Amino acid sequence: MGTQTEGTKHEVKGVAKEAFGKVTGDKGREAAGKVEKHAGKMEKAAGKAADKARHEVDKHR
């Protein structure tokens, strides 16, 4: 579950950076925010997949 939590943290930070970049007109910060936001989403998805795989393995023991 740690990966999902870290993913959420990165996603929220990315959204904040992206919004700040839009408000200030800083395209670099906006782009960095988008990258971090999407990386966080991918990290959450990987965590969910790992948890599901762990659950399936445990179920068949």
Q: What does the model show?
A:
By secondary structure, the chain is mainly alpha-helical. It has one domain (2-59). Helix content is 92%, strand content 0%. It has two helices and no strands. The longest helix is centred in the C-terminal third of the chain and has 33 residues, at 27-59. The protein starts with a helix and ends with a helix. The mean pLDDT is 93.
What's the short version?
This protein is mainly α and 61 residues long.
pLDDT < 50 stretches: none
Mean pLDDT: 93
User: Can you write the helix and strand succession as a string?
Assistant: HH
Largest sheet: none
Q: Write down the overall geometry.
A: rod-shaped
Question: Rg, please?
Answer: 15 Å
Share in β-strands = under 5%
How helical, in percent, are the residues? over 70%
| Count of spatially separate domains | 1
Total E-strand runs: 0
Decide which structural class fits the backbone: mainly alpha
Number of helices: 2
Oligomer: single chain
- What is the distance, rounded to the nearest whole angstrom, between the alpha carbons of the first and last residues? 21 Å
Secondary-structure blueprint of this entry?
Blueprint: H1 2-24, H2 27-59
Helix pairs in contact: 1-2
